[in-house]
Specification:
337 residues, 434 Repressor (Amino-terminal Domain), Rossmann fold, six-stranded parallel beta sheet, six-stranded mixed beta sheet, 12 strands, elongated
């Protein structure tokens, strides 16, 4: 296996030039030299010693994507990747990190872990956190002393770099559309709304739409539980035995909405003839369902790209002030309404 010194000798350049190319710092290197060095690297099967580089530079080129799993008694924690939302987001984050020469570390974080310990132990350069709530910020995510970008998080807005989706507007659009199609008994299915977060913001939009249409909210219209296909299936089963109380549902995620549709259909209800369903996310699986899912679309791929680009601005020192970005949403009308 060759070394940087050997590559520099073969390319007839300095070690610094080789190092710049390996680390994708191309600004001071000609295109011809870059191509030559990369060809020699490929021919000699050169692999950088990342551990040695980390010790020398005090950087690891590792970014941690952390997702809290702190919903009490959630029986579906070990099935989280059944939700394609995570796959789409992780794919985008990894792809864009790779373009910047970084590596992705991924971890679901439970209530017994302290993120700062992971950062120190693995010499993490930066962190992306998805969907944190207040109780997690106060314990799990405190004193993380590396650049951090929060996704889908509504806590400590004034001091944290974050990217959110226009969740409130999405909840409003979904509910208002159901009203415009003649529905009046509109339920909502969410995870917990006790803490400020994505679920509570989408619920707020739902309530605003009801109020603007002069519909009195009924406590029986709210279903709180777990963000999983299986929980949605249970709700569909329940509603099928109380069908006179509902003619539509806004479900705060696509995977949950598809579970609801399965439960409704299994127990004899037709979608949308008996009950209309709107999801939220715009996942590709909504196109594969029967009927195809009407949904509020957020661009998950763009969200992943934006999170990496924002983190890179922080790591490079290009951005020194708090940045807060909001992704738009749109209603995609399909067959479930």
């Amino acid at each position: 296996m060759s070394s940087i010194i050997e590559i520099a000798r073969l390319a007839k350049v300095s070690k610094m030039t080789v190092s710049n190319v390996i680390n994708k710092k191309y600004s001071k290197v000609s295109k011809e030299t870059i191509d030559k060095i990369e060809r020699i690297i490929a021919e000699t099967n050169y692999t950088p010693n990342l551990f040695a580089r980390s010790l020398k530079s005090n950087t690891s080129k590792i970014v941690l994507l952390a997702i809290p799993q702190t919903i009490e008694n959630d029986p579906y924690k070990n099935k989280a990747f059944n939700n394609p939302f995570y796959g789409e987001l992780i794919n985008s984050v990894e792809y864009n990190l790779r373009k910047h020469g970084y590596y992705l570390m991924f971890r679901f974080i439970n209530e017994n872990e302290i993120l700062s310990n992971l950062v120190i132990n693995w010499n993490i350069d930066g962190v992306i956190i998805l969907g944190a709530i207040e109780k997690e910020m106060d314990v799990m995510f405190k004193e993380v002393n590396v650049p951090t970008v929060y996704l889908d998080t509504y806590i400590d807005i004034a001091k944290n770099d974050m990217i959110i989706t226009d969740d409130e507007k999405g909840g409003f659009l979904a509910t208002d559309y159901l009203y415009q199609t003649g529905r009046r008994k509109i339920g909502i299915v969410v995870s917990s709304i006790k803490e400020v977060g994505v679920a509570s913001k989408r619920y707020d939009g739902y309530r605003q739409a009801l109020a603007s249409s002069h519909i009195d909210f009924q406590a029986s219209w709210l279903f709180e539980g777990f963000p999983s296909f299986e929980f949605g299936d249970q709700i569909g089963k329940y509603i099928s035995s109380h069908k006179d109380q509902y003619d539509a549902l806004f479900v705060y995620s696509d995977i949950l909405a598809l579970g609801v549709i399965k439960g409704l259909k299994t127990y004899g209800l037709r979608v949308p003839e008996d009950i209309a369903v709107v999801g939220f996310d715009g996942l590709y699986i909504g196109e594969l369902s029967e009927p195809k899912l009407t949904t509020i679309k957020q661009d998950i791929t763009v969200k992943g790209e934006m999170s990496v680009n924002l983190l890179m601005r922080k790591l490079s020192g290009e951005s020194t002030t708090v940045e807060q970005l909001k992704l738009p949403v749109e209603l995609l009308i399909k067959e479930s309404t």
